[in-house]
Write a structure and sequence with these properties.
Helix content: 55-70%
Oligomer: single chain
Radius of gyration: 11 Å
Number of helices: 3
Order of helices and strands: HHH
Distance between the termini: 21 Å
Length: about 50
């Protein structure tokens, strides 16, 4: 995923170890539902906490 983002001028995503489980759960839900809302909210929250 990071390679695709970076090749399109978007910074890579780095998930802190403490958030990996939540990230994985959000990704599974995204893959199953095709609804990116939960993942988007997670990434927004993550970007605000760094």
């Amino acid at each position: 995923m990071n390679g695709v983002l970076m090749s399109n001028g978007i910074d890579a995503i780095s998930i802190p170890a403490a958030k990996v489980q939540a990230f994985n759960e959000k990704m599974v839900q995204f893959y199953l539902t095709k609804d990116a809302t939960g993942m988007a909210l997670f990434l927004i929250e993550l970007s605000r906490s760094t």
